[in-house]
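Researcher: Checking consistency across runs. Here is 4-deoxy-L-threo-5-hexosulose-uronate ketol-isomerase again:
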Amino acid sequence: MSVNYESRYAIGPDETKTLDTMALRKKFLIEKVFIDDAIQLVYTHYDRYIAGGAKPVRKPLTLETIDELKAPYFLERRELGIINVGGAGKVSVDGEVHELGFKEALYVGKGRQEVVFSSIDAGNPAKFYLNSAPAHHAYPTQKVTKAEAEIVELGSLETANHRTINKLLVNSVIKTCQLQMGMTELKTGSVWNTMPAHTHDRRMEVYFYFEVPDGQSVSHFMGQPEETRHIWMQNEQAVISPPWSIHAGAGTSNYTFIWGMAGENLDYDDMDKRAINELK
């Protein structure tokens, strides 16, 4: 079996306040997203979201079901978002092949029985970042490139948060049940993301940081606005953000991150913003 997974139970803000560094990382950090010739997944009980990665090098990888789903196949009651952060690759969905280049996305709807990942060049393998959420309706499989994304530019160099938001798998671009995914690219000289910070009680979120240069790191901030915590993260790692938590980061260099979220609302702007000088 090429699918490895672990399950993470949801915890609240009061319990999170008591965690030391290692416990905080164990609960929220996804340290290994990509492993050669394997699919690596984390099933979180925050909205039953799944995040992970598929890295086919020497062989194709099939997205098999996991015990937690109690389902004959992975997407029986789920939808899937894929963004390729490696070399060119292919995703076969029930026999229909979709080629994905660097930073291209694919949405796969509920009910698709076979999903197979492969790389075009083993010397430069694809790295398929995966997010999945429960689904109630079967929407079509659809590829979305950066050219087809909804693009928003925010921040400024003066406040070190000049960034481009690429909304890829969102309801303003394609139809999904609850899964929303996009990619934020920070400009050279900018390091802060999602600042000013916010929470959104009706959605949880996962951040995946990549294009972090060698020798550099990102400090991800989480927790209630009045009781924040931080997790130091390296290239190609992900972090789970509960609905009650802020989710922001500052790097020692510019970088890119993928955000994915699920919950009861598809409105991207449904958020409770908090002023920078209110954070503690």
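Researcher: Does this match what you'd expect to see?
Model: One thing to look at in this run: Residues 3-278 form a domain with the Jelly Rolls fold (CATH 2.60.120.10).
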